[in-house]
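User: tokens in, sequence out, please.
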């Protein structure tokens, strides 16, 4: 469409919840142009323009698709002030949202636990993710979805935050260096225990990750990337950003929910893979000594996927390399996520 002056104008048909970004007054947005794409309702910057302008990824923030430099939330958002909010980390494989249904289920459960009302429906949330995938031309990548308490006053009271915020970032993630996926990784047992369930249930995937961050700092101090967190009774719960699996005599074990864990979606998927492949798998409370004396140990998570642990503190695990059961499960996992049937349920 052309205006009288001959300048190009894009037709704008927007859903009430999604607005295109405003042009920036300083002209820095000149390299950008709103592009009407094949999406019927959403207008956004063309991916290549965002890349050229160093503005990728294009991010959904409270109803708008914004280039990276403009993707911001209020400093009064209680997500920032208090870590009051929930989130999901989700993999995209072959353009599909891996285990989308389970992530939506967990996001809503986490929000309900905080009495946080998600401002859009589940279908709209899924559409937001798909819009971000399209806007960024993502084929394989990672989505970070946040629901924050929203902007309020300088006090804890969530009732002062009338509207929750929603942010969706579709990008790439490399949780651990690539070479560790081949040779396995060293981890430690953190001295700091996991927040007890009765204080803050780790099943709630909240924006407050300080307990995990402090354990991660312990790991970094020891020259590694991960730490096993014990619960206050001294049982293994999980790592700072992953669930843990242990293999002994061909049998797979993982801590149960009561150990104080996030019920990982990759963990669930691996438990199901074990059943499919005839590998016995049991949820069981474990002491750190049992983990250290196992034949194999591996971690699972949306960001981490599946990665072998080959050393815990100064103890070598098994042969010191990725073991056969871990490899089998990792290959089975890769076969699914590279197939034409990436599950979105
Ligand atoms: C503390 C913690 N445990 C476990 C996981 C793994 O969960 P999922 O497989 O759903 O990504 C995560 C992932 O973010 C996590 O933060």
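Assistant: Sequence out:
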């Amino acid at each position: 469409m052309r205006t009288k002056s001959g300048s190009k104008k894009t037709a704008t048909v927007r859903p009430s919840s999604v607005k295109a970004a405003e042009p920036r007054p300083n002209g820095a947005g000149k390299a950008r142009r709103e592009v009407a794409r094949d999406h019927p309702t959403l207008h956004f910057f063309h991916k290549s323009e965002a890349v050229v302008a160093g503005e990728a990824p294009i991010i959904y923030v409270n109803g708008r698709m914004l280039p990276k430099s403009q993707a911001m939330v209020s400093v009064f958002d209680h997500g920032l002030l208090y870590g009051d909010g929930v989130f999901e980390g989700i993999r995209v494989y072959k353009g599909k949202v891996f285990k989308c249904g389970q992530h939506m289920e967990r996001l809503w459960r986490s929000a309900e636990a905080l009495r946080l009302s998600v401002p859009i429906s589940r279908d709209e949330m899924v559409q937001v993710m798909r819009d971000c995938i399209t806007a960024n031309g993502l084929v394989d990548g990672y989505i970070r979805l946040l629901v924050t308490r929203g902007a309020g006053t300088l006090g804890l009271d969530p009732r002062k935050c009338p509207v929750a915020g929603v942010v969706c970032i579709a990008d790439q993630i490399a949780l651990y260096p690539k070479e560790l996926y081949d040779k396995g990784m060293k981890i430690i047992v953190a001295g700091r225990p996991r927040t007890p369930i009765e204080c803050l249930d780790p099943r709630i995937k909240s924006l407050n990750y300080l307990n995990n961050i402090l354990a991660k700092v312990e790991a970094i101090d020891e020259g590694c990337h991960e730490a096993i967190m014990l619960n206050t009774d001294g049982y293994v719960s999980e790592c700072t950003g992953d669930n843990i699996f242990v293999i002994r005599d061909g049998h797979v074990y993982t801590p149960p929910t009561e150990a104080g864990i996030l019920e990982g979606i990759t963990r669930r998927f691996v438990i199901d893979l074990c059943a499919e492949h005839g590998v016995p798998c049991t949820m069981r409370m474990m002491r750190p000594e049992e983990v250290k004396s196992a034949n194999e140990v591996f971690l699972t998570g949306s960001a981490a996927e599946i990665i072998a642990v080959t050393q815990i503190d100064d103890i070598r695990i098994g042969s010191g390399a990725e073991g056969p059961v871990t490899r089998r499960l990792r290959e089975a996992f890769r076969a699914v996520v590279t197939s034409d049937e990436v599950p979105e349920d």
